[in-house]
Amino acid sequence: MTRSRREFLKASAAVAAGGLVATRSASALSPSGSLIAAPGLLSSDLPSADDPAIKALMQAALDVAKTGGASYADVRVAARRQQNVNTRDRIVQGVSDTDTFGLGVRTLVDGAWGFAATSRLDKDSVANATRAALEQARANRASQLRPVQLAPTPGNQVGEWKSPIETDPFNVAITDKVALLLAANESALNVKGVRNVTSSMFFLREEKSLMTSDGSFLVQTIYRTSPSMSITAVSADFSDFQTVQSSEIAPMGLGYEWVINSKMAERAPKWAELAVQKLSAKPVEPGRYDLLLHPSNLWLTVHEVIAHPTELDRALGFEANYAGTSFIAPPAQVLGKLRIGSDLLNVVGDREQKGSLGAIGWDDEAVKPVKFDIIKNGVFVDYQTTREQATMMTDYYTSVGKPVRSYGCSYAQSWADVQFQRMPNVSMVPGNTDNTFESMIGSMDKGIAIVGDGSFSIDQQRYNGQFAGQIFYEVKGGKIVGQLKDVAYQFRTPDFWKSLKAIGGQKSYELGGAFGDAKGQPGQSNSVSHGCVPSLFQQTNIINTGRRA
After folding, report:
1. pLDDT tens digit string along 85-108?
2. 167 and 256 Cβ atoms separated by less than 8 Å
3. CA 194 to CA 191: how far, in whole Å?
Protein backbone atom coordinates (compact mmCIF):
# COMPACT_ATOMS: atom_id res chain seq x y z
CA MET A 1 0.00 0.00 0.00
CA THR A 2 1.20 3.52 -0.70
CA ARG A 3 -0.10 6.82 0.58
CA SER A 4 0.23 10.43 -0.47
CA ARG A 5 2.00 12.84 1.84
CA ARG A 6 -1.35 14.35 2.87
CA GLU A 7 -2.75 10.94 3.71
CA PHE A 8 0.37 10.15 5.67
CA LEU A 9 -0.01 13.24 7.80
CA LYS A 10 -3.67 12.44 8.42
CA ALA A 11 -2.60 9.03 9.67
CA SER A 12 0.09 10.29 11.97
CA ALA A 13 -2.26 10.33 14.94
CA ALA A 14 -2.42 6.57 14.68
CA VAL A 15 1.12 6.21 15.95
CA ALA A 16 0.08 6.24 19.55
CA ALA A 17 -2.27 3.39 18.87
CA GLY A 18 0.26 1.45 16.89
CA GLY A 19 -1.33 2.11 13.50
CA LEU A 20 0.53 1.84 10.19
CA VAL A 21 2.47 4.98 9.30
CA ALA A 22 4.85 3.73 6.66
CA THR A 23 4.36 4.84 3.08
CA ARG A 24 4.92 1.32 1.78
CA SER A 25 4.57 -2.21 2.93
CA ALA A 26 6.72 -3.85 0.29
CA SER A 27 9.98 -5.09 1.74
CA ALA A 28 12.66 -7.69 1.37
CA LEU A 29 15.37 -9.23 3.50
CA SER A 30 18.91 -7.90 3.22
CA PRO A 31 21.89 -10.32 3.42
CA SER A 32 22.16 -9.37 7.08
CA GLY A 33 18.53 -10.22 7.68
CA SER A 34 17.29 -6.67 8.15
CA LEU A 35 14.15 -5.55 6.37
CA ILE A 36 14.84 -3.25 3.45
CA ALA A 37 12.42 -1.26 1.32
CA ALA A 38 11.71 -2.20 -2.27
CA PRO A 39 12.46 0.55 -4.82
CA GLY A 40 10.07 2.26 -7.13
CA LEU A 41 7.77 4.43 -5.02
CA LEU A 42 7.42 8.01 -6.24
CA SER A 43 9.22 10.42 -3.92
CA SER A 44 6.07 12.57 -3.58
CA ASP A 45 4.61 9.68 -1.58
CA LEU A 46 7.49 9.62 0.88
CA PRO A 47 6.93 11.20 4.30
CA SER A 48 9.41 13.75 5.53
CA ALA A 49 11.99 12.35 7.91
CA ASP A 50 11.09 15.03 10.48
CA ASP A 51 7.31 14.50 10.45
CA PRO A 52 5.88 14.44 13.98
CA ALA A 53 4.67 10.89 13.51
CA ILE A 54 8.12 9.72 12.53
CA LYS A 55 9.68 11.59 15.44
CA ALA A 56 7.27 9.85 17.80
CA LEU A 57 8.27 6.46 16.43
CA MET A 58 11.95 7.28 16.89
CA GLN A 59 11.32 8.23 20.52
CA ALA A 60 9.37 5.02 21.01
CA ALA A 61 12.37 3.04 19.72
CA LEU A 62 14.66 4.80 22.20
CA ASP A 63 12.24 4.06 25.03
CA VAL A 64 12.27 0.35 24.18
CA ALA A 65 16.08 0.44 23.99
CA LYS A 66 16.43 2.07 27.41
CA THR A 67 13.92 -0.30 28.99
CA GLY A 68 15.83 -3.20 27.44
CA GLY A 69 19.11 -2.24 29.10
CA ALA A 70 20.87 -0.09 26.48
CA SER A 71 23.33 2.42 27.92
CA TYR A 72 23.18 4.29 24.62
CA ALA A 73 21.03 4.10 21.50
CA ASP A 74 20.47 6.03 18.31
CA VAL A 75 17.74 5.88 15.69
CA ARG A 76 18.03 6.95 12.06
CA VAL A 77 15.17 7.50 9.61
CA ALA A 78 15.87 8.30 5.98
CA ALA A 79 13.94 8.93 2.78
CA ARG A 80 16.36 8.47 -0.09
CA ARG A 81 15.69 9.11 -3.79
CA GLN A 82 18.11 8.76 -6.68
CA GLN A 83 17.76 9.28 -10.41
CA ASN A 84 19.89 8.28 -13.39
CA VAL A 85 19.52 9.61 -16.94
CA ASN A 86 21.72 7.90 -19.55
CA THR A 87 22.22 8.61 -23.26
CA ARG A 88 24.34 7.17 -26.05
CA ASP A 89 25.04 9.09 -29.24
CA ARG A 90 21.60 10.40 -30.33
CA ILE A 91 19.35 8.17 -28.24
CA VAL A 92 18.23 7.83 -24.63
CA GLN A 93 19.54 4.60 -23.16
CA GLY A 94 17.52 4.68 -19.99
CA VAL A 95 16.03 6.61 -17.10
CA SER A 96 15.67 5.24 -13.59
CA ASP A 97 14.11 6.83 -10.52
CA THR A 98 14.13 4.86 -7.28
CA ASP A 99 13.58 5.53 -3.61
CA THR A 100 13.58 3.90 -0.20
CA PHE A 101 12.26 4.85 3.22
CA GLY A 102 12.95 3.17 6.54
CA LEU A 103 14.31 3.18 10.08
CA GLY A 104 17.48 1.75 11.63
CA VAL A 105 18.22 1.49 15.35
CA ARG A 106 21.57 0.87 17.05
CA THR A 107 21.92 -0.15 20.69
CA LEU A 108 24.87 -0.41 23.08
CA VAL A 109 24.41 -3.06 25.77
CA ASP A 110 27.17 -4.03 28.20
CA GLY A 111 29.83 -2.62 25.88
CA ALA A 112 28.62 -4.33 22.67
CA TRP A 113 26.70 -3.03 19.63
CA GLY A 114 23.52 -4.33 18.07
CA PHE A 115 21.67 -3.05 15.01
CA ALA A 116 18.40 -3.74 13.20
CA ALA A 117 16.29 -1.97 10.56
CA THR A 118 12.78 -2.04 9.17
CA SER A 119 10.74 -0.45 6.39
CA ARG A 120 7.50 -1.13 8.28
CA LEU A 121 7.01 2.09 10.22
CA ASP A 122 4.36 1.18 12.74
CA LYS A 123 4.78 1.06 16.48
CA ASP A 124 4.98 -2.74 16.78
CA SER A 125 7.45 -3.20 13.93
CA VAL A 126 9.74 -0.49 15.26
CA ALA A 127 9.61 -2.01 18.73
CA ASN A 128 10.40 -5.44 17.31
CA ALA A 129 13.37 -4.05 15.38
CA THR A 130 14.67 -2.39 18.55
CA ARG A 131 14.34 -5.62 20.53
CA ALA A 132 16.22 -7.42 17.74
CA ALA A 133 19.05 -4.86 18.07
CA LEU A 134 19.14 -5.45 21.83
CA GLU A 135 19.32 -9.21 21.36
CA GLN A 136 22.08 -8.84 18.80
CA ALA A 137 24.09 -6.65 21.20
CA ARG A 138 23.79 -9.26 23.97
CA ALA A 139 24.90 -11.97 21.55
CA ASN A 140 27.89 -9.86 20.49
CA ARG A 141 29.18 -9.61 24.07
CA ALA A 142 30.66 -13.11 23.84
CA SER A 143 33.09 -12.11 21.10
CA GLN A 144 33.73 -8.53 22.18
CA LEU A 145 37.48 -8.06 22.71
CA ARG A 146 37.10 -4.83 24.66
CA PRO A 147 33.98 -3.01 25.85
CA VAL A 148 32.94 -0.17 23.61
CA GLN A 149 33.73 3.22 25.08
CA LEU A 150 32.43 6.40 23.48
CA ALA A 151 34.24 9.71 23.33
CA PRO A 152 32.06 12.56 24.59
CA THR A 153 29.93 14.63 22.27
CA PRO A 154 27.35 17.27 23.25
CA GLY A 155 23.88 15.96 24.05
CA ASN A 156 20.55 17.70 23.57
CA GLN A 157 21.52 19.02 20.14
CA VAL A 158 18.62 20.15 17.98
CA GLY A 159 19.23 21.44 14.49
CA GLU A 160 18.78 21.23 10.73
CA TRP A 161 21.26 21.23 7.85
CA LYS A 162 20.83 21.26 4.09
CA SER A 163 23.23 20.99 1.15
CA PRO A 164 23.79 24.43 -0.39
CA ILE A 165 21.74 23.91 -3.55
CA GLU A 166 20.14 26.51 -5.79
CA THR A 167 17.92 24.24 -7.89
CA ASP A 168 16.45 20.92 -6.76
CA PRO A 169 17.34 18.49 -9.59
CA PHE A 170 14.16 16.52 -8.96
CA ASN A 171 12.11 19.58 -9.90
CA VAL A 172 13.70 19.68 -13.38
CA ALA A 173 11.84 17.83 -16.13
CA ILE A 174 13.38 14.67 -17.56
CA THR A 175 12.89 16.13 -21.04
CA ASP A 176 15.12 19.09 -20.14
CA LYS A 177 17.80 16.77 -18.82
CA VAL A 178 17.68 14.59 -21.91
CA ALA A 179 17.83 17.62 -24.20
CA LEU A 180 20.95 18.89 -22.46
CA LEU A 181 22.69 15.52 -22.69
CA LEU A 182 21.81 14.96 -26.34
CA ALA A 183 23.01 18.47 -27.21
CA ALA A 184 26.35 17.69 -25.56
CA ASN A 185 26.55 14.40 -27.45
CA GLU A 186 25.83 16.13 -30.75
CA SER A 187 28.56 18.72 -30.21
CA ALA A 188 31.07 15.89 -29.69
CA LEU A 189 29.83 13.78 -32.60
CA ASN A 190 30.35 16.73 -34.94
CA VAL A 191 34.11 16.41 -34.44
CA LYS A 192 35.62 14.31 -37.21
CA GLY A 193 36.96 11.01 -35.93
CA VAL A 194 34.57 10.68 -33.00
CA ARG A 195 32.67 7.41 -33.14
CA ASN A 196 30.74 7.05 -29.88
CA VAL A 197 29.59 9.32 -27.08
CA THR A 198 27.85 8.49 -23.83
CA SER A 199 26.62 10.99 -21.27
CA SER A 200 24.67 10.82 -18.06
CA MET A 201 23.34 12.62 -15.03
CA PHE A 202 23.01 11.20 -11.55
CA PHE A 203 21.11 12.85 -8.71
CA LEU A 204 20.54 11.93 -5.08
CA ARG A 205 18.41 13.49 -2.38
CA GLU A 206 18.35 12.09 1.12
CA GLU A 207 16.23 13.41 3.96
CA LYS A 208 17.49 11.88 7.16
CA SER A 209 16.78 12.31 10.85
CA LEU A 210 18.86 11.16 13.80
CA MET A 211 17.68 10.85 17.39
CA THR A 212 19.98 9.77 20.22
CA SER A 213 19.39 8.61 23.76
CA ASP A 214 21.34 11.61 25.06
CA GLY A 215 18.72 14.00 23.77
CA SER A 216 19.81 15.04 20.28
CA PHE A 217 17.45 15.34 17.29
CA LEU A 218 19.01 16.35 13.99
CA VAL A 219 17.51 16.67 10.51
CA GLN A 220 19.55 16.86 7.31
CA THR A 221 18.75 17.11 3.62
CA ILE A 222 21.64 15.99 1.46
CA TYR A 223 21.94 16.44 -2.32
CA ARG A 224 24.53 15.03 -4.72
CA THR A 225 24.85 15.68 -8.44
CA SER A 226 27.08 14.16 -11.11
CA PRO A 227 27.05 15.02 -14.84
CA SER A 228 29.52 13.07 -16.97
CA MET A 229 30.58 12.26 -20.55
CA SER A 230 32.76 9.69 -22.30
CA ILE A 231 33.94 10.34 -25.87
CA THR A 232 35.58 7.70 -28.06
CA ALA A 233 37.52 8.37 -31.25
CA VAL A 234 38.32 5.56 -33.70
CA SER A 235 41.07 5.57 -36.30
CA ALA A 236 40.16 5.49 -40.01
CA ASP A 237 41.39 1.90 -40.37
CA PHE A 238 39.71 0.82 -37.09
CA SER A 239 43.07 -0.29 -35.69
CA ASP A 240 42.95 1.99 -32.67
CA PHE A 241 40.47 3.76 -30.44
CA GLN A 242 41.01 6.31 -27.69
CA THR A 243 38.62 7.62 -25.07
CA VAL A 244 38.46 10.85 -23.09
CA GLN A 245 36.18 11.18 -20.09
CA SER A 246 34.94 14.38 -18.52
CA SER A 247 36.88 13.79 -15.30
CA GLU A 248 37.47 17.53 -15.01
CA ILE A 249 33.80 17.78 -14.03
CA ALA A 250 33.70 16.36 -10.53
CA PRO A 251 30.57 15.06 -8.81
CA MET A 252 29.47 17.57 -6.19
CA GLY A 253 27.16 18.03 -3.23
CA LEU A 254 25.18 20.65 -5.16
CA GLY A 255 21.96 20.88 -7.13
CA TYR A 256 21.03 21.11 -10.80
CA GLU A 257 22.94 24.38 -11.07
CA TRP A 258 26.10 22.25 -11.15
CA VAL A 259 24.90 20.55 -14.34
CA ILE A 260 24.30 23.95 -15.95
CA ASN A 261 27.61 25.37 -14.74
CA SER A 262 29.49 22.33 -16.05
CA LYS A 263 28.70 23.46 -19.64
CA MET A 264 29.08 19.98 -21.11
CA ALA A 265 27.83 20.98 -24.58
CA GLU A 266 30.33 23.85 -24.74
CA ARG A 267 33.25 21.73 -23.47
CA ALA A 268 32.48 18.54 -25.38
CA PRO A 269 34.21 19.61 -28.64
CA LYS A 270 37.47 20.16 -26.75
CA TRP A 271 37.28 16.71 -25.16
CA ALA A 272 36.41 15.25 -28.56
CA GLU A 273 39.45 16.90 -30.18
CA LEU A 274 41.67 15.55 -27.41
CA ALA A 275 40.32 12.04 -28.01
CA VAL A 276 41.08 12.35 -31.74
CA GLN A 277 44.58 13.66 -30.99
CA LYS A 278 45.25 10.65 -28.76
CA LEU A 279 45.00 8.45 -31.85
CA SER A 280 48.20 9.98 -33.23
CA ALA A 281 49.94 10.44 -29.89
CA LYS A 282 53.30 8.75 -29.61
CA PRO A 283 53.80 5.96 -27.10
CA VAL A 284 55.71 7.05 -24.04
CA GLU A 285 59.30 5.92 -23.58
CA PRO A 286 59.61 4.28 -20.17
CA GLY A 287 61.91 5.99 -17.71
CA ARG A 288 62.00 8.60 -14.99
CA TYR A 289 60.38 11.96 -15.61
CA ASP A 290 59.38 15.02 -13.66
CA LEU A 291 55.63 14.56 -13.33
CA LEU A 292 52.99 17.28 -13.05
CA LEU A 293 49.57 16.07 -11.93
CA HIS A 294 46.40 18.09 -12.40
CA PRO A 295 43.86 17.96 -9.50
CA SER A 296 41.51 15.96 -11.76
CA ASN A 297 44.11 13.17 -11.65
CA LEU A 298 45.65 13.60 -8.23
CA TRP A 299 42.39 13.37 -6.25
CA LEU A 300 42.22 9.61 -6.92
CA THR A 301 45.81 9.09 -5.80
CA VAL A 302 45.11 11.03 -2.61
CA HIS A 303 42.04 8.88 -2.04
CA GLU A 304 43.87 5.58 -2.40
CA VAL A 305 47.27 6.22 -0.80
CA ILE A 306 46.49 8.84 1.87
CA ALA A 307 42.77 8.73 2.72
CA HIS A 308 42.42 4.95 2.95
CA PRO A 309 45.58 4.13 4.93
CA THR A 310 44.76 6.84 7.52
CA GLU A 311 41.45 5.18 8.45
CA LEU A 312 42.04 3.97 11.99
CA ASP A 313 40.02 0.78 11.66
CA ARG A 314 42.12 -0.22 8.65
CA ALA A 315 45.35 0.51 10.56
CA LEU A 316 44.06 -1.71 13.39
CA GLY A 317 43.35 -4.60 11.02
CA PHE A 318 39.55 -4.49 11.02
CA GLU A 319 39.44 -4.49 7.20
CA ALA A 320 42.17 -7.09 6.67
CA ASN A 321 40.09 -9.79 5.01
CA TYR A 322 38.22 -7.46 2.65
CA ALA A 323 40.01 -4.26 1.68
CA GLY A 324 43.39 -4.63 3.31
CA THR A 325 45.27 -2.97 6.13
CA SER A 326 47.59 0.06 6.14
CA PHE A 327 51.29 0.74 5.93
CA ILE A 328 50.67 3.61 8.39
CA ALA A 329 50.66 1.31 11.41
CA PRO A 330 50.87 0.39 14.24
CA PRO A 331 49.58 3.70 15.65
CA ALA A 332 52.03 3.91 18.56
CA GLN A 333 55.00 3.69 16.19
CA VAL A 334 53.86 6.11 13.48
CA LEU A 335 51.80 8.88 15.08
CA GLY A 336 53.77 12.08 14.98
CA LYS A 337 56.84 10.18 13.74
CA LEU A 338 56.32 8.76 10.24
CA ARG A 339 57.42 11.05 7.41
CA ILE A 340 55.16 10.42 4.45
CA GLY A 341 56.08 13.36 2.22
CA SER A 342 58.08 16.52 1.77
CA ASP A 343 57.45 19.61 3.88
CA LEU A 344 55.05 20.83 1.18
CA LEU A 345 52.57 18.05 1.92
CA ASN A 346 49.78 19.06 4.29
CA VAL A 347 46.55 17.06 4.34
CA VAL A 348 43.36 17.67 6.31
CA GLY A 349 40.12 15.83 6.95
CA ASP A 350 37.04 17.97 6.50
CA ARG A 351 33.30 17.18 6.25
CA GLU A 352 32.29 20.84 6.25
CA GLN A 353 33.59 21.99 2.84
CA LYS A 354 30.74 23.63 0.93
CA GLY A 355 29.66 21.75 -2.16
CA SER A 356 31.76 18.65 -1.47
CA LEU A 357 30.30 15.15 -1.61
CA GLY A 358 31.18 14.51 2.01
CA ALA A 359 29.68 17.71 3.40
CA ILE A 360 27.26 17.17 6.30
CA GLY A 361 26.00 19.01 9.36
CA TRP A 362 26.48 16.04 11.71
CA ASP A 363 27.65 12.47 11.26
CA ASP A 364 25.53 9.42 12.13
CA GLU A 365 26.59 9.67 15.79
CA ALA A 366 25.44 13.30 16.16
CA VAL A 367 29.02 14.57 16.00
CA LYS A 368 29.49 17.94 14.37
CA PRO A 369 32.58 17.52 12.18
CA VAL A 370 35.65 19.70 12.40
CA LYS A 371 38.63 20.19 10.12
CA PHE A 372 41.62 18.26 11.44
CA ASP A 373 45.24 17.65 10.41
CA ILE A 374 46.17 14.23 9.04
CA ILE A 375 49.61 15.08 7.61
CA LYS A 376 51.48 18.18 8.77
CA ASN A 377 54.57 19.33 6.87
CA GLY A 378 55.01 15.80 5.52
CA VAL A 379 54.62 14.02 8.89
CA PHE A 380 51.65 11.81 9.76
CA VAL A 381 49.86 13.23 12.82
CA ASP A 382 46.34 11.76 13.07
CA TYR A 383 43.83 9.14 11.94
CA GLN A 384 40.18 9.43 10.98
CA THR A 385 37.99 8.41 13.95
CA THR A 386 34.51 7.76 15.27
CA ARG A 387 33.37 8.15 18.89
CA GLU A 388 34.40 4.58 19.66
CA GLN A 389 37.74 4.83 17.87
CA ALA A 390 38.71 8.15 19.46
CA THR A 391 38.90 6.48 22.86
CA MET A 392 41.51 4.09 21.44
CA MET A 393 43.70 7.16 20.87
CA THR A 394 43.43 8.56 24.40
CA ASP A 395 47.11 8.15 25.32
CA TYR A 396 48.31 9.86 22.15
CA TYR A 397 45.81 12.70 22.32
CA THR A 398 46.69 13.31 25.96
CA SER A 399 50.42 13.38 25.16
CA VAL A 400 50.00 16.03 22.44
CA GLY A 401 47.34 18.07 24.21
CA LYS A 402 44.40 17.19 21.95
CA PRO A 403 40.90 16.50 23.25
CA VAL A 404 39.62 12.94 23.00
CA ARG A 405 36.83 13.48 20.48
CA SER A 406 35.49 11.96 17.30
CA TYR A 407 36.22 13.70 14.02
CA GLY A 408 32.70 12.96 12.78
CA CYS A 409 33.61 9.98 10.59
CA SER A 410 30.69 7.67 11.40
CA TYR A 411 28.43 7.06 8.42
CA ALA A 412 25.97 4.48 7.03
CA GLN A 413 25.09 4.23 3.36
CA SER A 414 21.38 3.89 4.16
CA TRP A 415 18.86 3.49 6.95
CA ALA A 416 19.14 -0.29 6.48
CA ASP A 417 22.88 -0.36 7.29
CA VAL A 418 24.80 0.16 10.50
CA GLN A 419 27.07 3.19 10.70
CA PHE A 420 30.84 2.71 10.99
CA GLN A 421 34.06 4.56 10.24
CA ARG A 422 34.12 6.17 6.77
CA MET A 423 36.52 8.75 5.46
CA PRO A 424 35.60 12.43 5.35
CA ASN A 425 36.77 14.68 2.54
CA VAL A 426 40.54 14.23 2.71
CA SER A 427 42.26 17.11 0.96
CA MET A 428 45.61 18.71 0.27
CA VAL A 429 46.24 22.17 1.67
CA PRO A 430 47.20 24.67 -1.09
CA GLY A 431 50.61 26.28 -1.05
CA ASN A 432 51.41 29.90 -0.26
CA THR A 433 52.12 30.75 -3.91
CA ASP A 434 50.20 31.68 -7.01
CA ASN A 435 51.37 28.56 -8.86
CA THR A 436 48.90 27.21 -11.41
CA PHE A 437 48.95 24.16 -13.65
CA GLU A 438 50.01 26.34 -16.59
CA SER A 439 52.74 28.20 -14.71
CA MET A 440 54.14 24.95 -13.35
CA ILE A 441 54.37 23.56 -16.90
CA GLY A 442 56.46 26.62 -17.68
CA SER A 443 58.90 25.62 -14.92
CA MET A 444 59.50 22.11 -16.32
CA ASP A 445 62.51 21.32 -18.50
CA LYS A 446 61.53 17.77 -19.44
CA GLY A 447 58.57 15.91 -18.11
CA ILE A 448 54.98 14.72 -18.40
CA ALA A 449 51.77 16.44 -17.31
CA ILE A 450 48.61 14.40 -16.72
CA VAL A 451 44.99 15.60 -16.70
CA GLY A 452 42.07 13.43 -15.61
CA ASP A 453 41.93 10.13 -13.73
CA GLY A 454 42.20 6.67 -15.26
CA SER A 455 42.87 3.09 -14.28
CA PHE A 456 44.82 2.34 -11.13
CA SER A 457 46.24 -0.49 -9.07
CA ILE A 458 47.12 -0.42 -5.40
CA ASP A 459 48.29 -3.05 -2.95
CA GLN A 460 46.37 -3.96 0.17
CA GLN A 461 48.47 -1.77 2.44
CA ARG A 462 48.32 1.24 0.08
CA TYR A 463 52.11 1.21 -0.22
CA ASN A 464 52.77 0.27 -3.88
CA GLY A 465 50.72 2.00 -6.56
CA GLN A 466 50.27 2.43 -10.30
CA PHE A 467 48.02 5.16 -11.74
CA ALA A 468 47.14 6.27 -15.25
CA GLY A 469 45.03 9.20 -16.49
CA GLN A 470 43.07 10.67 -19.40
CA ILE A 471 45.39 13.11 -21.21
CA PHE A 472 49.18 12.88 -21.14
CA TYR A 473 51.17 15.91 -22.29
CA GLU A 474 54.83 15.80 -23.19
CA VAL A 475 56.62 18.87 -21.82
CA LYS A 476 59.95 20.22 -23.06
CA GLY A 477 61.53 23.56 -22.28
CA GLY A 478 58.50 24.75 -20.35
CA LYS A 479 56.02 24.05 -23.18
CA ILE A 480 53.62 21.30 -24.17
CA VAL A 481 54.94 19.74 -27.39
CA GLY A 482 52.24 17.13 -27.92
CA GLN A 483 50.29 14.22 -26.46
CA LEU A 484 51.63 10.88 -25.29
CA LYS A 485 49.75 7.64 -24.77
CA ASP A 486 50.09 4.40 -22.79
CA VAL A 487 51.36 6.31 -19.74
CA ALA A 488 51.20 5.17 -16.12
CA TYR A 489 53.21 6.26 -13.09
CA GLN A 490 54.46 3.81 -10.48
CA PHE A 491 55.60 4.49 -6.93
CA ARG A 492 55.98 3.55 -3.33
CA THR A 493 53.77 5.94 -1.41
CA PRO A 494 56.30 7.62 0.94
CA ASP A 495 58.93 7.94 -1.80
CA PHE A 496 56.36 9.47 -4.15
CA TRP A 497 55.22 12.17 -1.73
CA LYS A 498 58.78 12.87 -0.57
CA SER A 499 59.60 13.76 -4.18
CA LEU A 500 56.94 16.51 -4.12
CA LYS A 501 58.81 19.57 -5.42
CA ALA A 502 56.14 22.23 -5.96
CA ILE A 503 52.40 22.70 -5.41
CA GLY A 504 49.76 25.11 -6.62
CA GLY A 505 48.13 27.88 -4.65
CA GLN A 506 44.56 28.51 -3.55
CA LYS A 507 43.41 29.69 -7.01
CA SER A 508 44.35 26.30 -8.51
CA TYR A 509 42.55 24.24 -5.84
CA GLU A 510 39.89 21.88 -7.22
CA LEU A 511 37.68 19.09 -5.90
CA GLY A 512 37.51 15.59 -7.32
CA GLY A 513 35.50 12.74 -5.94
CA ALA A 514 33.41 9.63 -6.29
CA PHE A 515 30.23 7.97 -5.05
CA GLY A 516 31.55 4.45 -4.82
CA ASP A 517 34.09 4.46 -1.98
CA ALA A 518 33.63 0.85 -0.87
CA LYS A 519 34.51 -0.55 2.53
CA GLY A 520 33.12 -2.68 5.33
CA GLN A 521 32.03 -6.23 5.95
CA PRO A 522 29.43 -6.46 4.47
CA GLY A 523 30.43 -3.69 2.11
CA GLN A 524 28.95 -0.20 2.01
CA SER A 525 29.50 2.77 -0.31
CA ASN A 526 30.48 6.27 0.73
CA SER A 527 30.51 9.52 -1.24
CA VAL A 528 33.60 11.62 -0.77
CA SER A 529 35.51 14.52 -2.31
CA HIS A 530 39.22 15.26 -2.28
CA GLY A 531 40.60 18.74 -2.77
CA CYS A 532 43.91 18.95 -4.62
CA VAL A 533 46.26 21.45 -6.24
CA PRO A 534 48.55 20.90 -9.22
CA SER A 535 51.59 19.07 -7.88
CA LEU A 536 55.06 18.52 -9.36
CA PHE A 537 56.95 15.35 -8.49
CA GLN A 538 60.63 14.76 -9.26
CA GLN A 539 61.85 11.81 -11.29
CA THR A 540 58.82 9.57 -11.08
CA ASN A 541 58.97 6.12 -12.68
CA ILE A 542 56.88 6.03 -15.88
CA ILE A 543 55.95 2.80 -17.67
CA ASN A 544 54.42 2.09 -21.07
CA THR A 545 51.12 0.25 -20.68
CA GLY A 546 50.61 -0.44 -24.40
CA ARG A 547 50.13 -4.05 -25.37
CA ARG A 548 52.99 -5.62 -27.27
CA ALA A 549 52.66 -8.91 -29.18
Report:
1. 999 999 999 999 999 999 999 999
2. yes
3. 6
